UniProtKB/TrEMBL annotation:
Pfam families: ECH_1. Belongs to the enoyl-CoA hydratase/isomerase family. This is Enoyl-CoA hydratase/carnithine racemase. InterPro entries: ClpP/crotonase-like_dom_sf (IPR029045), Enoyl-CoA_hydra/iso (IPR001753). Transmembrane segments: none annotated. CDD domains: crotonase-like (cd06558). GO terms for molecular function: catalytic activity.
Length: 257
């Protein structure tokens, strides 16, 4: 299958989906989210696919999250449509009844980290870094907070969400954000070995377990998506995200100059 922003490769029953926008640190544009949604739906329909690996192109980033070039054009009137893009993608991934591995090869931040947290198992290179950095550009982090809360509990969630702190891979493992850390040069091989192991498991057993995992989190997921629309509308009405992102791009331009 051909996409503009992702690679879709099936080999020996293992599908590798690669976010292929390395020049943007594999940021999630509207088109990228739509393509990921389509790719995961196709994977779920394809009986030949037994396991899925999601990763990022290059060595710098798994995904840096929402494409800020698009975020700066969002306003209080369009915030609900913007959240809906994530809602559609995340619901599709949560409904997949095949094992999903996030192979994290660099920065996983914001909605990029959320994407990794939707995987069943997260394996990271030692050089990878993790964080919900939305606070730094004035954006609420409702979906990310919910995922953190389920993974780490109240205290660590509040700390990381309000500070926007980045964690190294070993720290992220201690926080239960990821399950395995490997040397950078072993990431691809170890991810594929794990995918082969999972692909060999009884598929009905995998599917039934995953169906139950989804049900356990359905209420929290629905609530957070509903509140995310309200939260982003309030934020954009205040003008904070627009101002913070303008300052971000000005600083980045100054560094390049």
């Amino acid at each position: 299958m051909f996409y503009n922003n992702i690679l879709f490769e099936v080999e020996e029953g293992i599908l590798t989906i690669t976010i292929n926008r390395p020049e943007t640190y594999n940021a999630l544009s509207t088109e990228t989210k739509a393509e990921l949604t389509d790719a995961f739906e196709a994977a779920n329909r394809d009986s030949e696919v037994k396991a899925i690996i999601i990763t990022g192109a290059g060595s710098k980033a798994f995904s840096s999250g929402q494409d800020l070039n698009e975020s700066k054009t969002v306003n209080q009137e369009t915030a609900d449509a913007w959240v809906d893009e994530f809602d559609k993608l995340y619901r599709v991934i949560r409904s997949i009844e095949k094992p999903i591995i996030a192979s994290i090869n660099g920065f996983a931040t914001g909605s990029g980290l959320q994407l990794a947290l939707l995987a069943d198992i997260r394996i990271a290179a030692k050089s990878a870094k993790f964080g919900m950095t939305e606070i730094n550009v004035g954006l609420p982090c409702i979906i990310g907070s919910t995922m953190f809360w389920e993974t780490m509990g109240r205290t660590k969630t509040i700390d990381l969400i309000l500070t926007g702190q980045l964690l190294k891979a070993e720290e992220a493992k201690d926080y239960d954000l990821i399950t395995r850390v490997v040397d950078d040069n072993e990431l691809k091989e170890k991810s594929r070995d794990l995918a082969k192991e999972l692909a060999a498991k009884p598929p009905i057993g995998i599917a039934v377990n995953k169906r139950w995992f989804k049900q356990l989190g359905d209420e929290n997921f629905d609530n957070c998506m509903d509140y995310a629309i309200k939260a982003h509308t309030i934020a954009y009405e205040s003008g904070e995200p627009q101002q913070a992102m303008t300052e971000f791009f000005e600083k980045r331009a100054a560094k390049k100059g």
